[in-house]
Structure formats: C-alpha cells, structure tokens
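Recall the central idea of this unit: under ordinary conditions, the amino acid sequence of a chain determines the structure it adopts. In this exercise we apply that idea directly, starting from the sequence alone.
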Amino acid sequence: MLSEAQAIAPKLIETRRTLHQWPELSFEEYRTAALVAHRLHDLGIPHETEVARTGVVGWIGNGDGPTIALRADMDALPIQEETGLPFSSQRPGVMHACGHDAHTAMLLGAAEILKRHEGELRGRIQLIFQPSEERIGVDGYSGAKLMVEEGVTADVDVILGLHVDPSLEVGKIGVRPGPMMAAADRFEMEILGQAAHGAYAYLGVDAIVLAAQVINTAQTLVSRRIPAIHEGVVTFGTISGGTRENIICDRVFLEGTVRSFDPAIRNQLQQELEDVAAIARHLGGDYRYRYFRGNPPVINDGQLTGFVSRIGGQLFGVDHVVEAPKTTGGEDFSWYSCKTRGSFIRIGAHNPAWPGKHRLHTADFQIDEEALVVGAALLAQSAQRWLYEYDPEHWRHVENC
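Accordingly, the structure predicted from this sequence is:
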C-alpha cells in the first residue's frame, strides 16, 4: 500500500497543514473533530462523534472476525509557535508542537486506502481519533483512559499507535518490544513548620529547612532504594514558601513527577516518597502528601511488535526498521495497551539537512512531511495484513497492567 500512500501525499500534506494552522487544546478539539468526521463522511466510513467528549471513532470492514484498532491523537499544546512556516498556527499561544496534526493526517490517509480495499478485509478495522493525550484533567482522565472506560476498545483484539520522532531520520521506523515508555505520576507535598521572627529562629520550626531535608533525601530513592536493574525518576518541579526575609517560614509547597516502568517499583516509590516527607514530622514539623497516578507504562506486545517490524521491513527495507529507545516520557496509549495487545511505533521525521534539533514540545518543532506517507502506508498495510494472517490460537487476549 506504499504506492497508494504516495499517490495521496498531496492530500496528506494539505490535511496536516490545515490542522497545524488551527490547533486546539485537550478536550477542545471541536474543529479538528469536525474535519475528521467530514473526511470520514466523504469516504463513506461510518463513524461516531463526541466519543470521550471530543473524539471520533470510525469502522471499516464487517463485524465478523477479528478487530484491529488504529489510533491517532488530535490535541495541541499551549506553546507560541516560532517556526515562521507559511502554515504556522493561527491561534496565539497554541501549537501542534508534538505532531498530533501529522498523526491525524496519517490515520485519515490510512482510512482512505483501507476503504478502497474494504471488500478484501477479513474482519474489521476501528479508527480511533483520540482527544487529550497531552493533559490529564482534574478528574484524572486523559483521552485514552476515557475512551477505554466508554468501551471503545471492548471488542478490539490488537491496537497500533504511532508517533513522529524528530530524533529519527525520516524514512526510518522505530520499534521496541516490552516496556517502551514510563508510567507518569505526580505528587504534592506540603511541609508544615512554625512561624517565628527571623531573629529568633529557635522559637519556630523552619519549613524551608525541613523541605530542603526532604528534597535531598528524596534524591537517594532511585540510587539507593531501587535495584540497579530497574529505572526510576523522582523530580521536584516546583517549590514555593515564605513571605519575607525576616520571618521563619511556616509552610512550603512542593510538587513533582515520578517515572517508572515496573508496577512494583511504582508502588515502592509512591510509599517511600511519603516516608521521606515524614522527615518533617521527626524534626518537629508536619506534612501533607498526595500522590496522583497518571498514565501506566507503555508495554509493547512482543508478538505484535515483531509483526509490525516485518511489515515495515517489507514496505521500506529491513535497514529502515530500527530499535526505538526506551524513554521515561509518558504516553496515554498505555491505557489501550494495558487492556489488549498493543504496539506503539516511532515514525522518523527528521531531515538531516535541516539545521537545529526541532525537538518535541518546543516552539520551533517541525517535521519532514515525507513521514506522513510512511505512517499512512504502515498503518494501512499492517491492518490489512494482520486481518489476513489472523489466527485465534496465536492472538489470545492478554492484559499488561
């Protein structure tokens, strides 16, 4: 299906640039969802809107046989674009700085190709255009988690997702079986002391000093409390406290993130962070501690990832399929791959002739648009071929979380 993707390359680029000009933040993807629904309608693909608030789900093929899902995220980031591109964002302070415009265009392209072959399909393909990958709301929901809870993937046997990668040369595909991305959690600590005049520090309990002890001790959790064969990250991202230079501070607020791959390590870090916060109590103060579980780790199914690697090699050559790095970044694709066999794929988007890095989540983020053809072709060929080769004995249901 590579030649078919190449034939619609101008449409893929036009779609991506339109989405890029009109980015929308998490759970606000109304214009984006309307464009997706309009394109699916024109292709004759049945679909449902307002799924997980602002998502769109479509179907190709018949209801008999297995189902493979293909997922793209749609939301943008609160970043002011500084690329200078002629199709730069028209919304001040909002930008597609993570490539979700490209992901949506790739999935629409794959849908167009697969619709032409609908009569040949041995099962069903579910198209998931997901809102809010970038943000977990105050209710604890990201788009993927809400999609799963609304039953979107209840009948799905396997699911594929992809992400452009500006560190990988365009034309390359990055795959990795097993843990690929980390669980992303958040914590809050309030360290409580006793106010006093700065000249009479012994009459108070300095919350700033207590917080310093907590922060320094927390840095030993990964290096001294976790086995060296496991990875983890504990980061304090904000600290605030105090009112004047001559007043002993009575409370300090701390906030940070925890990253891990193993469920047992995740539980351990959650508990031991509270043990560290309790240092304040032993030194005459007190503490409050809250831990918020975010996205689970992305764990790629080995069999499915091997299948995608084979399809990628057939389409683009085996030398274009490379091992993707393991990263402590988070991704809410994990909510799908927790419940069914899933594989998350990296699509190279870097043009080596371009100066600069154009990293994700930066104001100058750019992609080589040849990546759109690669992603669309890989999704379409993988879905069609997986249905053709499906054997229930080889694809029994598994849960990774």
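The domain at 2-181+298-389 is CATH 3.40.630.10 (Aminopeptidase).
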